Structure formats: C-alpha cells, structure tokens
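[scheduler] slot 2 assigned
[scheduler] job type: sequence-to-structure, two independent chains
[scheduler] chain ordering preserved from manifest
[runner] begin chain α
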Amino acid sequence: MGKKVRWGILSTAGIAVRRVIPAMQKSDWIEVTAIASRDRHKAEDVASALGIPKAYGSYEDLLADPEIEAIYNPLPNQLHVPWSIKAAEAGKHVLCEKPLSVTVAEAKSLLAVQERTGVIIAEGFMVRGHPQWQRARELIAAGRIGNLRSIQGVFSYFNPDPANIRNVPEYGGGSLMDIGCYPIHTSRWMFGEEPVRVMGLFDQDPQLKVDRLTSAMLEFPSGQAIFTCSMQLVYHQRMQLLGTRGRIEMVMPFTPPPDRASYILIDDGRDLAGGGICTETFPPCNQFTIQGEAFSRAVREGGSVPVPLTDAIKNMAVIEAIVRSRQSGRWEAP
C-alpha cells in the first residue's frame, strides 16, 4: 500500500468543491480518488474540473468502492451523523465537516459506531492545524499574557438567501450552528477547560426561522468567553485573548486566505496607542491541507486526530446548552 490515503468525497457541496478538495489535492498524503452526488452529471462535472478519477451517482456506490479508505463528509448538518455511520460501517475512516451533529445524543451515537467498526471518526475544525492558533496556545502556556482570563470574539457575514441550507431550520441551520461553533471550539481549546455554565441571546429571522444574530457568555473555571455570531451582519471576524498582563489579537482567526500571510498581534498593554504591540507573521498556508494531512497521517501511522469524537461531543453540548438558555432565559450547564 502506498503512502497516500485514498479519499472519497460525499457530495459536491460548495465548501468541498471550492475549498477542501483543491486544498487536499496539494498534500503528499492524500489522493482524492472519487466523488459522489445524487446527480451523476454533477459528480462527473466536478470530477472532470478537479481531476478526480471516479464519479458516482449515489453515496452508496462510493461507499461500496473497496479502494476508498477515508471519507470527507460535507453534507448538510442533519445528514452528518447518518452518513458518517454508513461510511464507518462500510469500513471507511470519516472526517466530518463541523458541526458534527445537530444534537449531543446524535453525536454520542458515533462513539459506539467507532468502537464497533475500528475506524477513525473526527470533526473538521480546520482552525486546529493553523500555525497562528498553535502559536497563540504556545504563548498562553508560556505565560506571555499572564493568566488568560477573558476571550472575546465576533464572527459574521451577510447571507439572507432562503434557498441556502444555512437558512433552513430543518437542516440544522442558523448562525450558532454554522459559525458560533468556532468561537466556542477555540475558547474551549485556549482555556483548556470546559465551560461550567452558559447564557445565550438569540434574534430569530421572522421569515427564515433561524437565528440570524446570537450572542453568548461562557463561564469557565479560569475565566469567561463572550462572542457574537451572525449571518446578517457585515463580514467580519476577530478573537481577543485577554490575560492579566497582555493580550493576543487573532486578526483573521477562522478563514485566513490561503494565499496570504496571516498574523497575530501580541500586546503587553503598556499604552492604548499600541506602543506595546508586536506582530508575529505566518507564511501563507492552507488549513484544509493541514487538516486533511493530519487525518491521513492518523490513518497511516496511528496516533490522534486534532478533533476526536469526544471533543466534538463537548462542543455540541455547549451549543445545546446555549439553545436551552434561550428557551429558559437562565444560565444552563452543558
């Protein structure tokens, strides 16, 4: 068996075609062997455009292909778990796009499947491999900003299209599920803890019936995280990691362009005019390439994946608690 892991792509979803597949094809660890769509012509068109050898007119046919070792699942949220289970039961390792599921119970069902089938199932939070986040974690661990006490974040863009799956409640749509999961995930990672209680504030679109603007507070043993996410605000993202003696500002925290350098600001707080700020720059890199490679290495060599099922379940538990808080008007424990 060669070094490259042979991948199949479950659907011609936009994120797969525009971002993930071209990024994965840049890796020496990955061979994108097949793609499937319920519309065979669509699969053939994408396969032809991206140089993928095989195109299937059904997901089942792709899962039956004995050559495929790993599956990338970018289906709509409500299909993540059912098709991840089918892939695992076909003996394929599964990298599932975030959020892994639409409920905690559904996510937990994958644990037994993983145990029974012996495959790897992981959640695709591509930010985990980006050098800027790795460096932020290093700086926090080294005490560069003192004790991390507060994380503040914003993630927003404008998409009022009723036909877009992110705006369909039955498909697990809404701001919190689509992008709020990022500040939750990175806050848990930077603190290295789980929140003890959370509070959520939602603004629902009256026509679309999904949350168009959500803010949440997360109380951790070591501090607090506060974030706002929206699918009907200006395109913007920022994360501030505030410590007792300094802060780190993640300028493009979640979707830094792969063809441009990214950078973080480290501020010792000596003055408000920025006299204490130094910049650390990272060469252009593609976090989807890094993600696919990390997963492929785990398949070939063993070892852990960046976001295993146990972590994905904990993130989903926070999302669920924020939703419960919206309904109860009270703090809720994940």
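[runner] end chain α
[runner] begin chain β
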Amino acid sequence: MTMDQKEHWEKIYATKQPTDVSWFQVYPKTSMEFVAAFDLKKEAAIIDVGGGDSNFVDSLLEKGFTNITVLDISANAIERAKKRLGEKADLVKWIVSDVTDFIPPEQYDFWHDRAAFHFLTSEELTDKYVSIAEKGIAEKGFLVLGTFSESGPKKCSALDIHQYSEKSLSYKFEKEFNRIKCIKEDHTTPFNTTQNFLFCSFQKKQA
C-alpha cells in the first residue's frame, strides 16, 4: 500500500465510530466458527491481519487463547482496540505495519484475514502477501481469508478492491496450501445493506 492509503486508514479510524464503517460486526461469528473447527490449542499462535479495531481479538480472549497478535496498517485502529480492551490489551501483541512490508517474528498456527487481502489490487502486492503468508504460517497451520465475492461490492471505504471466486482465491495459495473449504456469506452492514463475502480456509502443506 502507498502512504496515501495509510493516511486514508488513519483518517478513517480517527474520525469514524465503529458502527460508521461497513465491516463492523458485534460478534465475528463466521471467523469464530473457523477457530472452533480447527480445534486449536489455547496457546496456538494466532494473528489477525488487518484486524483494525474488530471484536475478533475480544472473542479470542474470551475463549482463553493466550498467544494473539493483531496487525494493522493504522496506528489509530490499534489504539482504539487497546482502549476498548483496557487491561486485557496487555495480553495481546500489537503490530502497526502494512501487511506487504510485514516480517513475521514467529510462525503462526492460525492466520486470519477478514477483508484486508481484497484491498491489494495489483498482482505484485498479492504475490508479496502470499509469500509473507507462506513464510509466516507454521507447517500444517491454518489460513482463513475473507474477501468480497464476485457478487460483492467493487469498492470499500472509497477504495477499489479485488473480488474473488473460490477458484481465483484458491489459485493464489495453491503452491504451499491445501484448500479445506470455501463458503459464501451475506454480511449485513450497520446501514442495513448487504455485502457478499467469500471465506476460504487452507492448511499449510507439510514439507
């Protein structure tokens, strides 16, 4: 992403309330269903990429997970999440970074990304992301990606996005990952509009 895009996200999180943005969820039901399906240990290394100030981290803490990282390009988003969590924020590792510049400090057992990947609209950036995920996910670790489907919006937060089908998303990750399953979901925004998402889960291949 460019500096302009970082400034864009800093402004969004400085000026809008959680319910003023389309991606807001009171409870990240689908994401937590994937967590439950993979029967992760409580000490599993989990990263939420593009986590913003979403409630996914709250839900993970409530389930007793102890090794959680949240990454976002916006320092304002991270600060808002920390403020909301209060003392619990100390239980989380927070990283302010563009994901395409991210150097994973550890390998993750569960890599979660709801609605960040689709903002990468060039092949160069998506290839960077894939390469970072390949390095950053442990052998037999899990990857869950939520993107707009081909029936979803073409823009989000005034930015262009890249829509995905099950085939096109799977193709991006087929070298190092086996696809587990893909589902489509209608997300109802705080403005009572509907966005169609594609969620795909993958498992890192054994070496």
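[runner] end chain β
[qc] chain β: The mean pLDDT is 92.
[scheduler] slot 2 released
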